[in-house]
Amino acid sequence: MQELFKLSPDNIPLIKKASITAAEAFMDDPSTLYSIPDEGKRANLHYAFEYYIRTSIARGAEVYLTSANCEGVAIWFYSEARSPYGLLSRIGNPLLPLRCGWRFILGSMYEYRLTDRIKKLYAPRPYEYLALLAVNPVNQKKGYASALLNPMLKKADEQRLPCYLETQNMKNVKMYNYFGFEVVYETSMPKSNLPEFMMLRRQVSSFKPVHDRIWELAFPYQDKRNDTGHAEVTLHFARILQALEKGDEDVIVPAIMLHDIGWSQVPDRMLVFDRNASKEDRKRVVTSHQQYSVELARPILEKVGYSPALIEEILEIISQHDTRKGFISKNDGLVRDADKLWRVSKRGVAAAINRGKKDIKEPFRFPGHGGNRKGYYYSESAKRIDSKEIEDRKRETGSNEQ
User: Fold this and answer.
1) Which residue would you say has higher pLDDT here, 395 or 238?
2) Parallel/antiparallel/unpaired status of strands 195-201 and 5-6
3) Ramachandran quadrant class, 305 (left: phi over 0; alpha: psi -120 to 50; beta: rest)
4) Scanning 47, 150, 223, 259, which has the fewest C-beta atoms within 10 Å of its C-beta?
């Protein structure tokens, strides 16, 4: 690792200096202005960061400074360590409510509950968690953020660990994109309209070269039903489910990449969305697209050198991924779970609206959604993701329908 200054629990002067750096970095942040509207109390923000840094160190975090001058500070947690967040950490210091106000304390608690729930869904363990990155405003745009991030990212790459973080600032999203993080979930904070972005930096070479090649070969056949983003979104869900449920990456990733490419060969493919079409016609086009998907997928898998056994397992999953009753394996279940989650995703709902299937002003319903039906999902992880996605879609559409 590049040489950074690691903060120890007994270095009180530097802990205080680091807390001042963090407070100055976040003083004008939208979340701070909302949670501590009183300017006098915002001047006490460094007390909150001091307590947070002390608590983080006590609970196993790695706290790094750019130097003894403390131009910047970063706090990293290994996912298997205890988090310093929560109500106890925020109000364990009895003076914090007086110094920063109860709105700040309760807001921190709401934020913790939300982000902790989402983290369990979208951050496959184990991972490194960037709990804090702060650079003093007078030292920003001088490379200190890179100096704090790069060594730990390199360490995570060497250990093949993904990295996870949350931010409420779009400007930060763009910066983290540069370091390989991508937004995996976006919501708004409880009791406010403040955005919250959950970001994940996948482990190095998280896509095997052979999977990259499959994606390239399949790409021209994707998203042919006015459903732009379907391949990308279902792949996103499949990778999460594969990690959470310990499925076979070499089956699940190619299967989800290839499962719907057959729609490109079905001339009347939009019949599947036509309410006036007969049940027989809709069944015919669904069955046809499965058959075409198998016909297109086989030469792609053979071209990249996939083993015959894996090819047959993948093709069997694809062959009836929309029509099969029950699940023939874990891999089959996870691929089909990921496909179904598209229907409740933000882009999936938008696609349904654009096709005229749903008036966004009506009470919110999910066409074809059966998430509460027994046997609809294979995995408990998919059920949890479904519930969270529906909750967010209802909030976005202003629906009170349960």
Assistant:
1) 238
2) unpaired
3) left
4) 150
CB 13 within 8 A of CB 28: no
Which among 125, 233, 212, 171 has a CA at the least distance from the CA of 30? 171
pLDDT of residue 401: 42
Other CB atoms within a 10 A radius of the CB of residue 142 amount to 14
Pair of tokens at residue 218: 């399949």
Residues facing residue 75 across a β-bridge = 63, 132
DSSP state of 106: H
Kindly report, residue by residue over 20-43, the tens digit of the pLDDT: 999 999 999 988 988 999 999 999
Instruction: Kindly state the tokens that stand for 99.
Output: 């110094």
Give the pLDDT of residue 292.
96
The pLDDT assigned to 91 comes to 38
Range name among 254-263, 264-273, 303-312 with the lowest pLDDT average: 264-273
For residue 318, give every residue at least 6 positions away whose Cβ sits within 8 Å of its Cβ, in sequence order, or none: 255, 258, 259, 290, 293, 294, 297
Please give the Cα distance from 383 to 371 (Å, whole number). 7
DSSP secondary structure, 63-94, as one string: EEESSTT-SEEEEEEETTSPPS-SHHHHHSST
CA distances from residue 11 to 7, 8, 22, 63 in whole angstroms, order as listed:
7, 6, 17, 12
Under 8 Å CB-to-CB from 320, ≥6 apart: which residues? Answer: 290
273 DSSP assignment: G
Predicted confidence at residue 206, as pLDDT, reads: 59
**What's the whole-number mean pLDDT along residues 343-358?**
80
In this prediction, residue 397 carries a pLDDT of: 67
**CA 259 – CA 268 distance, rounded (Å):** 18
Return mean pLDDT, the chain. Answer: 86
- What integer is the mean pLDDT of 297-301? 98
Identify the weakest region by mean pLDDT among 116-130, 166-180, 367-381. 367-381
Which has the closest alpha carbon to 95: 105, 107, 86, 85? 105
Contact present, 135 and 25 (Cβ < 8 Å): yes
What separation in angstroms does the CA of 244 have from each of 122, 124, 196, 373, 389?
9, 6, 23, 22, 17
- Contact of 323 with 288, CB cutoff 8 Å: no
Return the half-sphere exposure (C-beta side, CA atoms, 13 A cut-off) of residue 193: 1
Residue type, 257: M
Q: How far apart, in whole angstroms, are the C-alpha atoms of residue 402 and residue 400?
A: 6
Across-strand partners of 182?
200
